[in-house]
Amino acid sequence: MDEVMERRESISYAKLYRQWERFSWSATDIDFSRDIVDWREKLDDKQRDALLWNYSLFLVGEEAVARDLTPVLDAAEGFPESLFLTTQIVDEARHHVFFDRFVREVAGLGTDTASTLGAVDSYLTWGFRQVFDELDRVTNALRRRPTDKALLAQSLALYHVVVEGMLAIAGQHFIQRYLEEKAMLPGFFAGINNVARDESRHVAFGIAFLGDLVRDSDECRAAAIELWDRVLPWAVGVFIPPNFDRDYTEAFGFTLEEIYAFGLRSFEMKLGRMGIDPEEVALLRREDRSLPYEERARRLWVLIEAGILGDDRREPEPTGEALEILFDSMTKSIDLDVARSLKGPIEWRFTDGDPWHIVVTNGHAEAKPGLAGTPALTLETTTSEWAKIAVERTHPVRSLAGRRLRLRGSLAAKAKASKLFKLG
Ligand SMILES: [Fe+2]
Ligand SMILES: [Fe+2]
C-alpha cells in the first residue's frame, strides 16, 4: 500500500490538476481571420486537401474521445483520479470545439456540428474507423460494468496509450513542426499548441493510472496486452493517406515513415514506463527491434503498401521485399525447440511465387529464398494467404480447413506445425 501511495505521490495527479488550471485556454476566442486569408492565398488545392485530411481525423477523434471518457470517470475509485478526469472531459470538448471551428470557419465545410462532422467522413481511413469503433465498444462495456478493472485497464490502454499517446501526439508533433516552419495559419497554430500541451498531460495521467493497474493486477496486465494485440494492426492503418499518395505529408516536409517511427518510439517508451516489455506485444515481437525506428517504420510501410497491414479489406499482394520482411520476422516468432525437433528445414512452396525456407543452425533460425533440398515440413499456399497468416490477420486453422494451406511431411512433422507457428 505504501508503495502505491508513493508512486501516486511522485506522479502527483494534484500537480497535473494545477497545470490544467494554469494553462486553461479558450477555443472560442481564437482569431482565425489571418488563417482564412492564408487558407486562400498560401495553399494550393492539393495542400488544402492534405490539411483537411489530416485535421478531419482530429475533428472526428476529439468528438469521440469527449463522448467516451465518462465511463472511465465513473470507474475511477480514487478522488485524485476523478478530479483529473473531470478536467480531461472539459479539455476534449474544447478540442472538438477548436477543430470544429477551424473546419467550418476556415475550410468552409458544414453549417453546424453535425454537418461539419458529416462533411469530412470520406477522409476517414479503415484503420481509423476500426480504432474508434473499438473505443466506443470498450468504453460502453465499461459503462455497464464500472467495477470491472480489466475493462478499465483496456479503456486506458486504448484511449490514453494508443489514441492519445501514439496517434494524436504523433500527428500533432508534425502539424506543429510544419506550421512553425511555414509560418502560416497562426490561429490554428496557437490552438494546436494548446491541444498538444493538454494531450501530453492526459497521456501522463493515463500512463500513471494504467501503470498502477497493471503492476497491481495480472488480470489487468493481460487485458491491456490483449487490447493492444487487437488494436495495433488497426492503428497502423490510421494515417494511410487517400490513394496511398505520399504527397499528403511530403507537401509539408515530412514522410509517412517519420510519423510511424515517432508513433513506435512513443508507444515503446510508454510501455517501458509501465514496466511492460515490448516483446509481450505481438506486433512489436514480430519486428526486429535492434533496428533503428526509421528502418522499422520503413519496413512497416512496405507491408502497408503491399496490402498486408493497415486495411483488412485489401487482398495482400506481397512484393519480394514484403515476403523477405515477413520471413525475417518469422525467424523471431517461430518456436525454436519445435523447429529443431523437426530435424530438417521448413519449406514454403508458393503457387504464385518463388519458394522460401527456414533452417535452424546454432540455435537460431534463418530464412532463405529458394527450395530447401530435403525439407522436414512443406507448406503449400499462396503468398497472399501466407502473408495474412504471418501478420495474424487470419488463423492458419481456417486456411487449412479451407484448403488454402496444405502441409506435406511425416505425420509427426505435420502434427508439430501448430506448435511451430503457435497456431494453437
Ligand atoms: Fe483531445
Ligand atoms: Fe486528450
Structure commentary:
- The protein is α+β, with helices and mostly antiparallel strands and 424 residues long.
- It has two domains: 287 residues, Orthogonal Bundle (Ribonucleotide Reductase, subunit A), CATH 1.10.620.20; 95 residues, 2-Layer Sandwich (Nonspecific Lipid-transfer Protein, Chain A), CATH 3.30.1050.
- The protein has 20 helices and five strands.
- A five-stranded mixed β-sheet has the order 3-2-1-4-5.
- β1 and β2 form a beta hairpin.
- α2 packs parallel to α6, α8 runs antiparallel to α9 and α9 crosses α13.
- The mean pLDDT is 93.
- One fe (ii) ion binds next to α10.
Summarize the structure.
The protein has 424 residues and is an alpha+beta fold. The chain is built from 20 helices and five strands.
- Mean of the pLDDT scores? 93
Strand content: 5-15%
Question: What is the number of independent domains?
Answer: 2
Query: What is the helical fraction, as a range of percent?
Result: 55-70%
> Which molecules other than protein and nucleic acid are bound?
fe (ii) ion
Q: What is the CATH third-level topology name of the largest domain?
A: Ribonucleotide Reductase, subunit A
Element-by-element helix/strand order: HHHHHHHHHHHHHHHHHEEEEHHEH
Output the strand order for the largest sheet. Answer: 3-2-1-4-5
Q: Provide a count of the helices.
A: 20
Features:
single chain, 424 residues, alpha+beta, Ribonucleotide Reductase, subunit A, Nonspecific Lipid-transfer Protein, Chain A, 5-stranded mixed sheet, 20 helices, 5 strands, binds fe (ii) ion
